[in-house]
Amino acid sequence: MSLLDNLNPPQLAAVTLEPRHALVLAGAGSGKTRVLTTRMAWLIQTGQVSPHGLMAVTFTNKAAREMLTRMTAMLPINTRGMWIGTFHGLCNRLLRAHYRDAGLPQTFQILDTADQLSAIKRLLKAAGVDDEKYPPRQLQNFINGAKEEGLRHTAVEAYDSFSRQMAELYGMYDAQCQREGVVDFPELLLRCFELLSRNAPIREHYQHRFRHILVDEFQDTNRLQYRWLKLLAGGGAALFAVGDDDQSIYAFRGANVGNMAEFEREYAHGAVIRLEQNYRSYGHILDAANTLIRNNSGRLGKNLWTERGHGEPIRVYEAMTDSQEAQWVVEEIRSLVAEGRQRREIAILYRSNAQSRVLEHALFSAGMPYKVYGGLRFFERQEVKHALAYLRLMENPHEDTAWMRVVNFPARGIGARTLEQLADIARASGSSLYAAVAQVPGRGGNNLAQFAALIDRMRFETQNLPLHEIVDHVIEASGLVPHYLQEKEGAERVENLRELVNAAAAFAAEDGYPFDAAGALAQTLPEAGIELPSPLAAFLSHAALEAGDNQASEGQDAVQLMTVHAAKGLEFEAVFISGLEEGLFPHENSILEQAGLEEERRLMYVAVTRARERLYLSFSQTRMLHGQTRYHMRSRFLSEIPEECLKWLTPKTGLAGLPPAGGSSWARSAWDDDRPARGDTGRSSKDAYYGSSQGYAGRRADAGVEVGGVLFKVGQSVAHARFGEGVIVSLSGSGTDAQAQINFGKVGTKTLALGIAKLDVV
Ligand code: ATP
Ligand code: MG
User: Fold this and answer.
1) Using one digit for the tens of pLDDT, what is the confidence trace for 145-166?
2) Which of 38, 341, 436, 518 is the most exposed place for a label (fewest CB within 10 A)?
3) Residue of 211, 371, 610, 614 marked catalytic
4) Which UniProt keywords are present, listed alphabetically (predicted)?
């Protein structure tokens, strides 16, 4: 079978386009990624380029892996060492190969977002800066925003004393990172950009090498990424970008959808290919997406159609509580699985990470295997980060962030006073904490010296060991495993530490590309004097960059949980979008201005278009968030979907909901009268938004239902002879038709006819 079979005419045209710049602009599921991957395979197969002569950039590690898998399926070539990855991953690779020219130590380590925040806090403390006036998070955003614009601290425009101070702190932060040999995420890109722009031989080498540069999800590139691409392409390479303006969902991180128009103007010059046939979703799902996104303004405009027929309607469910919603999701998944679907083909999507807890709880209680992407990811778990900190110190003992993390973990009698003393000495002499140890007197100094010796010893003892044995040795010798074994709840943590050993083994076996790439580079560019990064260094940057997928358990058939952001580019047979409530999705931070709201709508468009066959939408009247019960109305996005695409599983009350154009009048949901005064729900700035009480026309659901002389109300505790005690979560009907949904805790939620079931009010 030829590579080019099964492509429609515009897809074929895109895949086989002559080597020139081009833009593929097309909606979700129209085959953009497929076109991009097939084009790579075709270029190689027809001998137009060698596997090392092209570069492909995607947005997530999962997508990059997917691309490699698809390539191998199409072409029997060794994809190892190919330049396919994320912007961060590729920049890391370039910096590893040219660390000297980039002004970095060979062992430079990557700070993830959390590490970066602690480094910033440490900086503010050391500089004696009031962190109320200059909040660490704000400084972090300031720094990252500037870096994403390509600006060093001296280039930041500061008009007032506050931003001048922020810029100065930015400079101090960069100096601290440089001293410690660490780079944060945006620094990877900026440093690499600077390397290429300043160093002509290196730039020319890559410009000469990459004949084709292909970019997926182009709508989400930021300014610096775009400039980086332009720099690499130089005058010679063909830039092939695919994207969908309707799926631009990273504006909050500086993504600039304007790059598409600019690219068309500067590069594509009319070579814009549009794909309109959707191969992913059934008609109802596609209609829902198309109609929804039409509410946005300033779109480039696309029309998607499918040959697949309508398919099942989209099911909608309204719950009274978030846990009831989660229960329902689990029940539906059970029946999907009973119909023979694989769990890994089922995804539960949500707007914010915090929503996963309730869902996870329900899945866990039901014994349903699941896997969370994003959130607290494997490499971000406390114990794993501790282990990584030891490994990082072995690579580079001068990295103060890692030092502070584990110097007294497990406890070794090193107190806050000793550490302050150490920090003072280090600051005075401009050295790292490690280098200052010898100057701390007394018992504290002694303990510190023992810790430093432990690091040196572990380095010595693991010389020449294979990667996974290094990790295995360190989790024991550091005292981490013995420590957690003594802890009551430590078993799972020990398991994760052992999993880290597996992850190291898997990495060495499969993902060793940094060595290959640098090795290949060393041959093609001998003048650069490239040295290979140690396997440990490569593994540590993998751990910092990896989207946290725990690859060892990748094979398990598990339900997939992730935020909508993380689901970009992926597809599943069945998709649940939960928490469709005003304030949650669309998110309250974005709701008040049109640009924010439109980004939320694009996010909803992304979510809806992930589904191939089945789509489920749900919302709940109440939700526990950040320790408080919140009362939400259903999302406006639900009413932006044509009614004929939907099938309501719960009665559609017609009450909740939707702002008419202009958005001032809000209907209510059934529990309204039981709500605390609106201002009591803990919201502040956005309260006015929720506080509007026009347009309520609600049935008094809280009035209860009377059956046989007994009054049942929502929220009431009842007892059943067989199911035990439960709480009424909803009521419907009246008289002999009256029904109650009752949550019986252990046995779950049951719907009972009140006239028949013998219930006692307790
Ligand atoms: P997104 O915007 O969500 O990233 P996309 O445009 O990248 O979507 P793909 O993921 O490439 O779309 O394709 C969507 C689905 O349609 C995939 O399962 C793909 O294999 C399938 N597909 C694409 N083109 C064809 C075709 N010509 N024939 C059959 N299936 C196709
Ligand atoms: Mg895609």
Assistant:
1) 999 999 999 999 988 999 999 9
2) 341
3) 610
4) ATP-binding, DNA-binding, Helicase, Hydrolase, Isomerase, Nucleotide-binding
